[in-house]
Amino acid sequence: MADSRSRNLRLAARDLAHVWHPCTQMREHDAQLPLIPIVRGDGAWLIDGEGKRYLDGISSWWSNLFGHANPRIAAAIATQAGTLNHVMLAGFTHEPALQLAEELARIAPAGLTRVSFASDGASAVEIALKMSFHYWRNVGQPQRTRFIALANAYHGETLGALSVSDLPLYRAVYGPLLFEPVVAPSPDWLDAEPGENADAVARRRLAELRTILERHAGETCAVIIEPLVQCSGGMRMHAPTYVGGLRALCDEFGVHLIADEIAVGFGRTGTLFACEQAGIAPDFLCLAKGLTGGALPLSAVLTTDEVYRAFLGDYAANNAFLHSHTFSGNPIACAAALASLAIFRDEPVLERIRALAARLSERIEPLRDHPHVAGVRQTGLIAAFDLVADKPSRTPYPPADRRGLRFYRHALGHGILLRPLGDTVYFLPPYCIDDGDIDLMVDAAVGAVDAATA
Ligand SMILES: *Cc1c(COP(=O)(O)O)cnc(C)c1O
């Protein structure tokens, strides 16, 4: 035990000598924020250097679908790595990329037949933004140079993706480097007026968006949204009718619709893609995170034949999409994605998600009565609530209180990984958890809420 503990400490000390961690004030390591060396993953669980186990209640940043070290995905990776690691996708192709493109076109909302590959979610968003912009130039409308994004949106950290994001915590400091989208109000139903339901909020927000489009459509390339759940913006949720109404408005005003399903795709909301709940297809669909089951970085942008055709022409006209990433369509990553999609084909995954979602919903219900919990909400297997100082007025705690951080540390101490966004606690577990894990996770969360709000 003493040895294994010192292994944890040794790994953390070596790490802190060189590794600059994402999304972290490094000065907080290790006094306020523990740095935990993970040596192994096993299904929904992560195991540290001391052998301590943590239930991964947030799917390692929303990427893991079928468990850590999933044997089927691991085997596909190993086989592919022993066959072909990588070849550039310009001038060459290979079975994993073409088969994944076929498979994505088959399962995506109708009409999304053309697939470009990149590695991270943010790079998929960059592709969608650039393709939409370039499409309008190619069809003789170069005056379209703007995008419409929603308040409270998050689309990634690279400069284009950050430009269409609206979270000051990540965006403000880089403001001078970014382009300015037109920002439309978020359809988040927590902003309901008295007597309004989620559909009424959606109708009100669509009417406001119509006004914006009346003024800006002529200079607009696309509207970009995270359908059904604005995840990084605090797991804020809206009615599918908003997504349906948005599609209709984009058609009416002749602008593209970009659906960023990087977080909500692959079953999180209870359907394979969130757009299905509105019965619509976007012009661009961005996928990443869960695309490989969470095993490797891979992202994809799907679009229509109509968009694709606008890029065909004489080489000299420079209307081709010359954007590239070295590892576009990497065979190992594509093989992992194919193995993950095979699990969706072979097992009743969506039924399982719905059953787990029902269990989660039942288990979090009592939290509605907690004096410091507000806004309990759920879409599919994503559930969230806010820690608040005063419940009737939904008054937040002063940010300096770091209640979310207290929650995080308390839950970790009890072997549950739940990492709040500010003071918003959320559950976003992988699909391999069972009912017992859900109970453990929610029980630990209840204890952590009490500890964080005491
Ligand atoms: C995580 C996320 C991104 C960015 O993906 P990365 O792989 O982290 O670059 C973009 N959009 C949404 C909705 C996300 O949740």
Task: Give a structural overview.
The protein is α/β, with parallel strands linked by helices. It has 2 domains: 36-69 and 349-453, Aspartate Aminotransferase, domain 1, CATH 3.90.1150.10; 74-346, Type I PLP-dependent aspartate aminotransferase-like (Major domain) (Aspartate Aminotransferase, domain 2), CATH 3.40.640.10. The protein has 14 helices and 17 strands. It has helices at 2-18, 59-62, 71-81, 95-107, 121-138, 159-163, 168-171, 198-216, 240-253, 305-309, 331-346, 349-364, 403-413, 435-453; strands at residues 38-42, 45-48, 53-56, 112-118, 146-150, 182-184, 220-225, 229-230, 236-237, 256-260, 284-287, 299-304, 373-379, 382-390, 395-396, 416-417, 424-427. Helix 3 packs antiparallel against helix 11 (331-346) and helix 13 (403-413) packs across helix 14 (435-453). It is globular, with a radius of gyration of 22 Å. Pyridoxal-5'-phosphate is lined by residues 120-122, 125, 154-156, 226, 231-232, 260, 262-263, 288.
